[in-house]
């Protein structure tokens, strides 16, 4: 290798290391899993990163033995690409600006690609296509002209040439990244695949650290009997919800739920039966509530539910559904609940008054016959 060639190789290596260093620093700014995924995919698709047009990330669900689509970043069309790329070029946006929380929120909210990706689940089996094979073998693939069986479960992505690389943490595959150039049709080079593979090793560790952190948060803030959030963490979450809803001028409703005559039940059946009842009701609440709802054990036989973006009339319907589900459960004998509710900002704009209003409504439900909902 001549001196000029050596100089070019050194400069290229320096650029690549500088890029990986910058991306690594960005990933260290948060332990929130969604933010980590957004940083990873923005790094794969941005002009300051690896410059693919589109990137999609799947994570392993060991319990269900499948790969779940978690996030997709990239333009939805050529027109969208022109708007996004010209905006980035005009304002000379760097990685730190592209990954700021507000950009993340706006991008994911508008993205059809992200919505499509979230609906994809791929069984980890040899005949499930290239994503599953990438996870099983733990190696990267470049697909120039995809065969039908290679893009199984991925029909909606209209894939042509693309690459897949495994995400690894401590030599264990935890997910897969798929990247392509579906707008520019730019060929994927060996250098591009090599850089993506190097970056995926960094990204895998960042995802694992985030997952471990979130598991720690869940365990340290969960009620040991029911697995729901405990009272202290509910107070924190409610405070944050009030700040967020006040800033965005959104409403929400809280439900205070109490098991009717629970002391009598415990006295008649014993505390073991009482604990079983609390666990059963907790599971009923999980299944009957929406994914966006937050459920906590408030204390003793009392529970609380935060219903985001929910006005009182809609909340009455949801509360009534919870009440009826408990009443009709075959796993519970003669157990009913009373529910009181209060809405932000209609009933109160601060935490303590809001809880107090919901508690007062709960007391009214108890006073006027139990097994009912009061607002």
Written account of the structure:
The protein has 375 residues and is of the alpha+beta class. It has 2 domains: 3-219, GAF domain (Beta-Lactamase); 231-374, Reverse transcriptase/Diguanylate cyclase domain (Alpha-Beta Plaits, 2-Layer Sandwich). It is 51% helix and 19% strand. The protein has 13 helices and 11 strands. The chain has helices at 3-27, 33-45, 78-91, 95-98, 101-110, 112-118, 130-137, 190-220, 231-248, 262-269, 271-288, 312-328, 351-367, and strands spanning 54-61, 66-73, 121-123, 141-143, 162-169, 172-180, 252-259, 294-299, 302-308, 337-344, 373-374. Strands 3-2-1-6-5-4 form a 6-stranded antiparallel beta sheet. A 5-stranded mixed beta sheet has the order 8-9-7-10-11, sandwiched between helices. Strand 5 (162-169) and strand 6 form a beta hairpin. The termini are far apart. The model has no long low-confidence stretch (mean pLDDT 88).
Estimate the helix proportion, in percent. Answer: 40-55%
Q: CATH H level of the largest domain: which superfamily?
A: GAF domain
Level-2 CATH architecture of the largest domain: 2-Layer Sandwich
What is the radius of gyration computed over CA atoms, rounded to a whole number of angstroms? 25 Å
Q: How many strands appear in the DSSP assignment?
A: 11
- How many strands, which pairing sense, and closed or not: the largest β-sheet? 6 strands, antiparallel
- Which overall shape is indicated by the principal axes computed on the Cα atoms? elongated
**How many structural domains in the coordinates?**
2
Low-confidence stretches: none
Q: How many helix segments?
A: 13
Q: CATH fold name of the largest domain, please?
A: Beta-Lactamase
Task: Just give the CATH class of the largest domain.
Answer: Alpha Beta
